[in-house]
Amino acid sequence: MSDRMTTPWGEVELSRFPEDPRDRLRAWDASDAYLLRYLDRERVRTDGTVVVLGDRWGALVTALAEHRPVQITDSYLSQEATRVNLARAGVEPGAVQLLTTQDPPPDRVDVLLVRVPKSLALLEDQLLRLAPAVHAGTVVIGTGMVKEIHTSTLRLFERILGPTRTSLAEQKARLIHCTPDPSLERPENPWPYSYALPDGVGAVSGRTVVNHAGVFCADRLDIGTRFFLGHLPEGGRRFVDLGCGNGVVGTAVAVADPTAEVLFVDESFQAVASAEATYKANGVPGHAEFRVGDGLAGVAAGSVDVVLNNPPFHSHQATTDATAWRMFTGAKRALRPGGELWVVGNRHLNYHVALRRLFGNSRLVASDPKFVVLKAVKRG
Predict the structure, then answer these.
(1) Tens of pLDDT along 348-375?
(2) pTM above 0.85, yes or no
(3) Angstrom distance (rounded) from CA 60 to CA 25
(4) What is 2-178's CATH topology?
């Protein structure tokens, strides 16, 4: 689904990636439009190195392409959406530099535009990484919906960059204005963060987990994954930890069976870096591959024995089943005949309905008052 965003410089047509008829969500929101209006209305200078942090689907850098901005994102899907949107707008390749949160940031930043992320930890990590490049003359403006900007958000800007204030709200969006203070004594970057797993979680009890900022439940083992770790399948040669997060599920498989081959896949650059660090921290002797991408796209059809999946049901602030459905369909294509998809999820999400519709079967492996583990088998 593509739609148009009106900017002070004309309309731009935008879409999310991949375009999915089930996903009716827009590729921009009022906070993107508010920031662009402000830049034009206040004639904010946008010369020098313009960095756009957390641009969700490329709306900001597409609108500002003539200023040759640098985009920094944790999301492979956002980065691919940006490529598509820039090409649709006729922007020449290379006019916008696309970096990930794992890439070294620019040495100097003259304008820093921040689309406030859902994760405060990711914002902390990225501001600390960018702070050395920010100078007294740097224009720093954040944007987000009112419900996304909290007192803790503002304190983070103040603690890392300098004095911070907010604007009045427009269409439920708000701006953050920060005045950089180069003399500020900044804290050490606490990311990545490591901890030891508790006992009672199977093969990885007491093992190390490494989390980069922004990874789900980065400071502790979330209860859904903990439940899944107690009910993982045995047998199979080639596994996929789909939506791997910090990689603890795939690592558990590899620890239990050193002959297993495990492919760790996530659309988050931070997550895949975490999964690789977790795997290596535990000295697992097996074979592993780490891939940032759109689910199982690019994985050969019929090449996988078991897919393990804890699908997200949020896309930023919106609740949607589009991501889970795309993961399930990708798993079915990648599995060999007789291969299995194992899914953990909250009871209320009713994943068994989607699995029966797609695979023709779904079996309850385990349940507790909050979670279920389901198995679907590819037939034929």
Answers:
(1) 999 999 999 999 999 999 999 999 999 9
(2) yes
(3) 17
(4) Rossmann fold (3.40.50)
